[in-house]
Amino acid sequence: MKGGWFKVYAIVYLVFLYAPIILLPMFAFNDATIISFPLTGFSTRWFEEMLDKPALSLAVKNSLFIAVTSSILATTLGVFAARASTRYRFPMKAGLMGLIMLPLVLPEIIVAVSLLVVLLGLGVSLSLWTVILGHVLICTPFCIAILSSAFQSLDQSLEEAAYDLGESAASTFRLIILPLVMPGIISSLLISFTISLDEFIIAFFLAGTEPTLPVYIFSQFRFPQAVPVIMALGTVLVCLSIVLLTIAEYFRRRGIAKAGGKDTGGFL
Amino acid sequence: MGQSRWSKLRQTEAANGLLMISPTAIYALLLLAAPLGTIILYSFLTDGYLEIIRTFTFANYIEAWTNELYRSVMIRSLGVSMAVTAVTVLLAFPIAYFVSFHVAPSKKSLWLFLITIPFWTSYLIRVFLWKVILGYNGVINSGLLGLGVIEEPLTFILYNVNSVVITLAHAYAPFAILPIFVALEKIDRSLLEAGQDLGESKFMTFLRVTLPLAMPGVIASVLIVFIPTIGDYVTPQLLGGPEGRMVANLIQLQYLKLDNYPLGSAIAVSAMVIVTIVSLVFVGLNRRYLRGPK
User: Fold this and answer.
1) A48-258: what CATH class?
2) Residue of A18, A76, A90 to mutate when probing chain B, most B C-beta within 10 A
3) How is domain B59-290 classified at the CATH fold level?
4) What is the pLDDT of residues B225-244, one digit of tens each?
């Protein structure tokens, strides 16, 4: 069979990729405080306990606020940069785009400490907003990567036709371009939301005393008896992110189909 | 006059482009370029008791590069990053190759989706679960004990460099697969047929046609794995044990625990400089693959 060994390897590799995620629900529904095998019995008590933690719900609330705000801001900035880089040629384009995309490869701890130093130097007190500043920075490159493919597959003659028919630049953008790239925008919002919700290091440095969800999770790892609840929480988060990603992928594909492009697959 | 020149300028493509990118560019300049400049500046200042003393000095760099502790952590971080990169890219290549060459075009998106899903689930929890897998009473040990393969639990797989490498190789897998996949997708399949028509074996065609054409993707994935892994904090913190601490743990210690911003900055800048030099050397060694057929 063609590629037989490759297929075996691919399946083994997927098992490696999914190993931690398969374990997660096992321990979340396991009736034991210690996270190890053999499993002792089925229980939903960790989920019940999860709903009963005020510190956790505060962390969730904070994280949701950060993630929603960051994803809107990052997608807005992403629209500007993606539109500029796909539509226009201008001086310093490579340099500016390089700087904007830099957080994609820059270790997050560098982003975190450099922002911390500047914010404290300026006398800004740490809050959820300082976390948002950092999250927008790291989400924007992902937004641009998604939005660029949406803007790239845009047929420029549609835009010219609108101008010829007497529309202004603003109304052309609103009536022609925006609806065509809308699927890309939705997918960019969802991806940056997911990234922000999961981001730890920047929140750890910049949140001050306000806990975010990952900071809360990290703090709970120190207490072995708190870990099963985290497993339950993780199960919920995995389900949530799979749903969000499926929606994002749906819109990304629809966007490409709408603009008449060919699907090259993947988010990145 | 000034008015009309301004309106003329607004008509040009360059001005339009700059205007369009300005919100994002200004944001990046203020919140990325300026802060990076600031930590470079801080790394040359002196740490006072409660404030930063504004005198220029190389002392932080001398400390960061000669202190045995800092130097060993730096060298270890570099070694771990290189090992992670090698493992991740070598494991990823066959997957990218499989999806690009052996999967039906209609199923490719599904495969890529399957590969990217684990990456989008909570990083902290994934790292923690590797601790469960590799631990003393973990999945691997209890599995092997149950099968009678080993007599006593293996201890060399947790709280050291090995566990850090395994976990990071897992975390960065999609980052390595996607660039290689994109490069493989771009290869004109008729070149491969030509290679075989001219009498090369399948394996030689792979070595002489496919691999060189896929190199830009391989180089991209090496960089995209190598550069961020050196700054990873969570994995060495949770799985590294005292032997597996990396440079990010050191930076965090200097900034948040010891409050020594100048030394923390010097360590951070040193790490960035090392990573940049290693990356540039790597790209330089492979530059012949990056010259496109223009």
Assistant:
1) mainly alpha
2) A90
3) MetI-like fold (1.10.3720)
4) 998 888 888 888 888 887 77
